[in-house]
Known about the structure:
Blueprint: H1 17-22, E1 25-28, E2 31-34, H2 39-47, H3 49-55, H4 64-85
Antiparallel strand pairs: 1-2
Amino acid sequence: MPHPVGADPRPLTGEPLALDLLNTRWIDAEGPRDLLESPDGLAIWLGSPPVREQTAPLAPAADRATLDRLLETRTALEALASAAALDEP
């Protein structure tokens, strides 16, 4: 089932899924932004073409449970990216 989608405000989209998830946080002229601060933002992310293509068989719901799991995943990916940038094991 398609998710209701508003305009995706992120400056960079369409990256591989893990990077696209990391790109749900960005900084613009208004300051730090986080697309995943609400289930509405989650619906925008889930409705973006690359995410829809990758998750089509699963069709995850834009609900609080999915949002919580994605926030945990994003935190883990950020830790991995930070460790790699510092060349830590």
